[in-house]
Prior knowledge:
Distance between the termini: 35 Å
Oligomer: single chain
Low-confidence stretches: none
Number of domains: 3
Helix content: under 10%
Number of helices: 3
Strand content: over 45%
Radius of gyration: 23 Å
Number of strands: 46
Amino acid sequence: MKIVSIGVRHIILELSNNYPYYNNEELAVYVDDVLYTKTNKNVISIYDLNPNTLYNIKIGSEEINVKTLDETICIHTDMFHPYKDGINNDTIFIQQAILACPSGGTVYIDKGLYLITSLFLKSDITIYLDKEAKLICEYDRSKFPVLKGNIKNGENELNLGCFEGSEQDVFSSFITGINIKNCTLVGLGEIDGRADLGDWFIKYNEIRIAARPFGIYLNRCENITLAGFYIHDTPCWNIHPYFSNKVNILDLRIENPIDKPTTDGIDPDTCSDMLILGCYFKVGDDCIAIKSGTIDFAKKYLSPSRNIVIRNCLMTEGHGGVVFGSESSGGINNVVVSQTYFKNTDRGLRIKTRRGRGRYGKISNITFDNIKMENVLTPFVVNMFYNMGPKPGHDEYFWTREKQIVDETTPLIADFTFSNIICFNVQYAGGVFLGLPEETIKKIHFKNVSFMFDKNATPGYPVMIEHKEKMLRKGLYLENVDELVLDNVKFLDNIGDDIISDNKTKIKIIK
Length: 511
């Protein structure tokens, strides 16, 4: 096993095996020879430890000694006499504790029920959520501060808010970090967005005062750790890191109602060097959606999302498991997804883009390895005709299959590698890959992949496009793909040919 994260009161470890999310057996976890828990997960978190203390940890036959970090001081929120009744607002009391905490200190949110609006994080501190601490969030939009999309002063400007790939006024999130470094939010407590009590989902695409808040928003932050807690029922995406680097999101439980729109799990947006590890997802939209802005945003910043590792996660429900776009104009590259389990999602890998997104950055060097998919309707979807969201100009330009002129608005999709993947109970198709006639998908490589189709499946729509058609137990469907390599790829109980293409694809099959 290896150490993933060490804090003043927590240690997170990862078992060394090849099983997606779950270990093949339940293991006992001992801390200083005292049973802490039993678990079959690969990522194991230990909380309620003491600072600056050496611990002996045994998990199964493995053993390790780990010392927690020291702290300058611990400030308990009880010192500020919050109401903790869930009725009177406690934001100011917790915020006072955060502001008062010196570098290297800990703000300990004690057991209790806290009503909050927006808490703003601070650099160089730890915020620890007691396992019996529950933050319940305000749902009246008139009570939230607004983060301006753009504030200008002569040649200087400040971008605070962002929504769906554009600089946009947005309500401050329940937990907000702006230009902070070296901050940890950790513990077994709970953050309840209570979005169903407000009007967030009534005409949800309209900007009323500002765009809907996220659960956690990190704007231009660095070296941030989020670990352990349960976050759910947020008005929009649960966690939105934006222009942030070195963000570690570890062993979280992330949930939103499956019938609520645009309630993604984690949306890294123009971010780099991220680790998403050991997280559980059950959401109303995409579990993880990696973004890098719309075309105007990309022209301004020329900054991709890159170097993102997703490992040992469980994704249940949701439109897509790991998704790219649709706001991806700045480019997305160097993404590795491994040891992850997709269950009951509409799609596993999902790339959604369209004409108008632009070629300032491309989607490339994407690797999926050691993946299990169960009851995923269509495991692989790459769609360059995505039809949701605003489409300026004439709609036909976005959905026509006729070849268009290549210009700065034409998106680019390059190469993908999918290896050591098993897909059970596929419903609609093993994969649908729709490139543009003027800008094709370059290369798709499958190695050691099995597709087993559900004999009881019913037809459905695998991709979100205009003039869509239902599919049932199709193999791999390709339009405008340059090259497909199948190395030890198996199909069982599909209907028709394993590969359905437009005869433009160079196909190489290795038995």
